Amino acid sequence: MTDTPPCPQCNSSFAYPTGQSLMCPECGYEWNPEEVAAENAAPVVRDANGNVLQDGDDVVIVKDLPVKGASKALKAGTKVKHIRLVEGDHNIDCRIDGFGAMALKSEFVKKA
Predict the structure, then answer these.
(1) Sheet strand arrangement including 30-31
(2) Domain co-membership, 69 together with 107
């Protein structure tokens, strides 16, 4: 049995190779398995210095950030422990002492 991946369009297991791509005989969809794997890969989140961030990392805020609804801003140098990476514009979820749950953008933090 061949180990070709199923069709991403219809999930058929009868895909066959056609040069560098694969073809589905049931729906006629043709795809490059390397491109599909690249699209499904998790996005890489980088900090302000270009370091790769991972779940559970500790980070430091690099500039003062105003917080909507709060009387004071988050100061540069505030340490944030145990971040969680999420999809979206604000790609870091965390809990900051004195502020509570927060969503931050990765370009405003650096790895501690």
Answers:
(1) 16-18, 21-23, 30-31
(2) yes
Phi and psi at 101, nearest 5°, equal: -70, 140
pLDDT tens digits along 56-104: 999 999 999 998 888 889 999 999 999 999 988 999 999 998 889 999 9
CB contact at 8 A, 104 and 94 = yes
In this structure, is residue 54 part of a structural domain?
Answer: no
- Helices vs strands, H then E, count in the chain: 1, 9
Q: Is residue 52 part of a domain?
A: no
pTM exceeds cut of 0.70: no
Torsion angle of alpha carbons 14, 33, 23, 12, nearest 10°? 30
Same domain, 71 and 34: no
Half-sphere exposure for 55 (CA within 13 Å, toward CB): 6
Tokens 């270009």 belong to: 50
| Whole-angstrom distance, CA of residue 69 vs CA of residue 37 | 42
Q: Are residues 66 and 106 in the same domain?
A: yes
